[in-house]
Amino acid sequence: MWNITKDFNLVGLCGGVLLKISDREIDAIPQKVFETYLTEEQKSLLAIPIGVDEENEWIQKKRNAEVKVETFYTNYEEAENSSLLQTKSGAWSTVLEVDDEGRAAASIKRSPLIVVGSLVDKAPNLGGICRLCDVLGAGWLTLNDLSVKENIEFKSVAVTADRWMPMMEVKIEEITEFMRLKKKEGYTLIGLEQTDKSVELNSDLKFPEKSLILLGKEKEGIPGEFLAELDMCVIIKQVGVVRSMNIQTATAVIVHAYSSQHC
Q1: DSSP readout, 68-87?
Q2: I need a labelling partner for 225 at 20 to 30 A (CA). Which of 215, 217, 233, 237 fits?
Q3: Which Pfam families match (predicted)?
């Protein structure tokens, strides 16, 4: 944890402290930037020291050692050339609040599960999915547009889960590339969809730990172009007159099934 005396320096004030208490993506200024761009005269005029990067105490580094889910880039060169000062596509958009709830959230060990909700467009459904993903310990949730988190209907259903649930923006047109990237990282691509080859979700179905679950559009389901990328589709057995579930309900069923095996 941070120390008010030891961390009273430029590195600590410019993000170093937040890196110690939050597992969110922080736009911090590292020691090398101050060392590189401050002149010797400017350094001599500083009222407080520059400080050092204490990477061994960064919470995000510890979390990434347990759950490796890389930020989504449109190309690999961008990933290689990125730095702490850059705002990356897919970066978590808010800083974890520094309070008791924030510290509790930072200590949660999430699963590697990725729930791709980019095809879902109704704010209340996305709010509910965000909430259940947080409750069930999913690693990441993708949205087509992160600004939906400011929607009042989203917030009313999410009930603050959007403050703690790791989310990244993956546009609909980026889904295929995103899934292919995750497949290279060892993920099994699973669709929640009724097809002639769908596997029934039951106690015999074992989810790989590194699973990516693609949710379909409300009513229309998963478009064919994305079905072709999947390793398998899962169907939830239904016996009632109405043979369809609300997307929130269906997501809760499949994510709970995964979590019961890996959380």
Answers
A1: --PPP-SSHHHHHH--TTS-
A2: 237
A3: SpoU_methylase (PF00588)
> What digits encode the pLDDT tens for the residues 133-176?
999 999 999 999 999 999 999 999 998 899 889 999 999 999 99
Q: Report DSSP state, residue 217.
A: B
Could you tell me the maximum CA-CA distance found in the chain, to the nearest angstrom?
78
Q: Is 44 exposed, middle or buried (0-12, 13-18, 19+ CB in 10 A)?
A: exposed
Q: Report the distance separating Cα 232 and Cα 192, nearest Å.
A: 9
- For residue 119, what are its two tokens? 């095809």
Residue 157, both tokens: 């259903």
Strands 140-143 and 114-116: parallel
- What pTM does this model have? 0.64
Answer for the pair 178, 218: CB distance below 8 angstroms, yes or no: no
Which pair of tokens denotes residue 183?
Answer: 């497949």
Burial-class residue 22 by CB neighbours within 10 Å (0-12, 13-18, 19+): buried
| pLDDT tens digits, 89-131 | 443 444 444 445 555 555 678 999 999 999 999 999 999 999 9
DSSP 221: B
Whether 258 and 211 have beta carbons less than 8 Å apart is answered as yes
